[in-house]
């Protein structure tokens, strides 16, 4: 389980379940009580509550701060 505080806007996160397009990686576009995420495979945008995000997220694949 990944804490929501460990994630920043621009990070790429690996989720436990794959999106129907086959990709399990998502780009974080918004943080707070809800998380905005864009699928890296098809570009679909999803809003997810913090509690559901923390249960579904597996790991941070690529950190936005590491790119700076």
UniProtKB/TrEMBL annotation:
Tree of life domain = Bacteria
Query: Per the record, a Pfam family?
Result: DUF951
Q: What is this protein called?
A: DUF951 domain-containing protein
The source organism is Phascolarctobacterium succinatutens CAG:287
């Amino acid at each position: 389980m990944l804490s929501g505080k460990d994630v920043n806007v621009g990070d790429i996160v690996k989720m436990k379940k794959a999106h129907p397009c086959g990709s399990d990686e998502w780009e974080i576009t918004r943080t707070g009580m809800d998380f905005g995420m864009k699928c890296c495979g098809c570009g679909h945008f999803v809003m997810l509550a913090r509690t559901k995000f923390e249960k579904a997220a597996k790991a941070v694949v690529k950190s936005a701060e590491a790119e700076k």
